[in-house]
Amino acid sequence: MVSSRRIPPPVAWTGGHSGHQPLRFASLVFPSSSQRPSVPDRPCWPMTSTPDSLRPIRDNHRLILAVSVAVLVLSFVMGFNANNRLTLPGLAGAPLPPLCASRAMFGVRCPGCGLTRSFVSLAAGDWEGAWKFHRLGWLVALGVAAQIPYRIWGLVHPSGLPLGDRWPHRLMLGLFALLVLNWMVSWWI
């Protein structure tokens, strides 16, 4: 038989949600202490997240990890032909087409022009050549390389990333701002 007596909703909530910590409901007020449910000492993970809610985050980590690995592997595999055009191994006679749509269609360099050639030069150990192709190529390559351990951490520890949610976006915007500033300076140099 089901009791017709209703239990009132909780009226005292303590704890809070900060970062990736689940909510703790330390004291729930019920009419009598015999009706108070037992509260575990520590929350059981995941308390508020289901595996389905983590899927987009994990898919994002997998995508960025795959792209970062592909970029670094291609940097080591690609090379230059006699005309300083990018080629794949065994295809020195057939260089890759220009990768920058802005430069191909409008004849104007974009903030990322030269990054691919800079990455390939860095992979070959030619720091001077990498600097000539793009002054910030080393910094972008460092950012791409840093994605690998960072994204692996995110896949292994779904509860959170070491830099939190805001810092990766701030770093990305800062790097983008540096690329645009470098592009604007290149107009006068």
Span between termini = 85 Å
Shape: globular
- Tell me what portion of residues adopts beta-strand conformation: under 5%
Number of domains: 2
Instruction: Label the structural class.
Output: mainly alpha
Total helical elements: 6
User: Strand order within the widest sheet?
Assistant: 1-2
Radius of gyration equals: 26 Å
Instruction: List the uncertain runs.
Output: 10-33, 39-50
Order of helices and strands: HEEHHHHH
Q: Main beta sheet, described?
A: 2 strands, antiparallel
What is the percent of helical residues? 40-55%
Please characterize this protein's 3D structure:
By secondary structure, the chain is an all-alpha fold. It folds into 2 domains: 7-48, no CATH class; 51-186, no CATH class. It has 6 helices and 2 strands. A two-stranded antiparallel ribbon has the order 1-2. A hairpin with a 5-residue loop joins strand 1 (79-80) and strand 2. Helix 1 (51-77) crosses helix 3 and helix 3 crosses helix 5. The radius of gyration is 26 Å and the shape is globular. 10% of the residues are buried.
